[in-house]
Specification:
It is built from 2 helices and no strands. With 53 residues, it is mainly α. The longest helix is centred in the middle third of the chain and has 40 residues. The radius of gyration is 23 Å and the shape is rod-shaped.
Length: 53
């Protein structure tokens, strides 16, 4: 039982999964922020174009 516990504590495979999850979350936040800013810029251009028409 003690050997199994030591093996579990030394296993780093689970840590790798957590690292990938954190990296994926950071990328998702960056993409959402970029598209939010892009959406505001596109909306402003549409307002400008409709105002000119």
């Amino acid at each position: 039982m003690i050997q199994k516990l030591r093996k579990f504590m030394q296993d780093e495979e689970g840590l790798t999964v957590v690292e990938y999850a954190v990296a994926g979350a950071l990328i998702t936040v960056a993409v959402v922020a970029a598209f939010t800013g892009l959406g505001a810029a596109v909306a402003a251009q549409i307002v400008t174009i409709t105002g000119a028409l």
